[in-house]
Amino acid sequence: MSVSEERSWTAAVRKRAVGALPPDKLLPDKQPSYVASWIYVFGVLSLSSLAVIILSGTILALKGPGWWHFTGVGHFFNSIHLWSVELFFFVMVIHLWGKYFMAAWRGGRKAVWITGSITFLVAIPCALTGYVSQQNFDAQWISTQAKDAMNAAGIGSFFNLLNFGQMYSYHILLLPAAVVAIVIGHILLVRKHGVVPPFKVPAATSQASRDGAGPEAEESAS
Amino acid sequence: MAAIFNLNHHPSYVHWHFFQLSVSNLVVIVLMIVVFIAAILIPFPSRRATGGRS
Fold this sequence. Notes:
The complex is a heterodimer. Chain A has helices spanning 3-7, 9-20, 23-26, 42-63, 65-70, 72-101, 110-131, 137-152, 164-193, 203-211, 215-221. By secondary structure, chain A is mostly helical. Among the domains of chain A are: 36-86; 102-198, Cytochrome Bc1 Complex, Chain C. Chain A is globular and about 60 Å long. The longest helix of chain B is centred in the middle third of the chain and has 19 residues, at 23-41. A two-stranded antiparallel sheet of chain B has the order 1-2. Chain B is α+β, with helices and mostly antiparallel strands. In chain B, a hairpin with a 2-residue loop joins strand 1 and strand 2 (19-22). Chain B has a domain at 12-43. The chains are: A mainly alpha, B alpha+beta. Chains A and B meet through helix 6 of A and helix 1 of B.
């Protein structure tokens, strides 16, 4: 290795990135047998919903409020955007419940749990700013009610929910960028640490499970 | 959805002491609990069951 290569920051970043996440860990083609459960599907369902949200939101941003309020196709994409958000929260909360009861912060996965929790917290104002960006009476009602809530919480001086321009830029740029960035970090951390294994079962139950060739038996054999 | 459900009425709420929740939110929460329990109980189709090899 040359001296210039040793001092190169790009080489240092590459070494560190490949060391933390070698290609077979970044894009694995096998998962442990315990991942064969429906409860492990909700993470990827959250990701799929987020992809539909971003795609439908991009189309809505391109076409504008006149399109999403007054044309059939605009109504359709507006509904796709709304229902993908509903689905996103639905599956994300089930994902959160599943990981909570698995104590998914075990085995050095603290950062995985924290980034997931922060994603959930950032997604809430992302949805709220969407409701106040609709450009209809519903948005007016929600923004005036939410303004009072923010003022009561002592954070109303930082932003104005009645300011459509500010809320719209929060909704289509700042907050989605934050959600996507944290989600990317979350996925990379999952790849680095692996999917959290289930709790160890007591010996008697484990024996019964082996007799029945359950998933624990498969895991212990592998 | 308005064509399927009549939305021209006051929303229904469940009110118990300090606790107040719209019926629609309650339905969604109950549905989430049902899906959560189903995800734990329903067996996942394995490759072995379909004749493949892992």
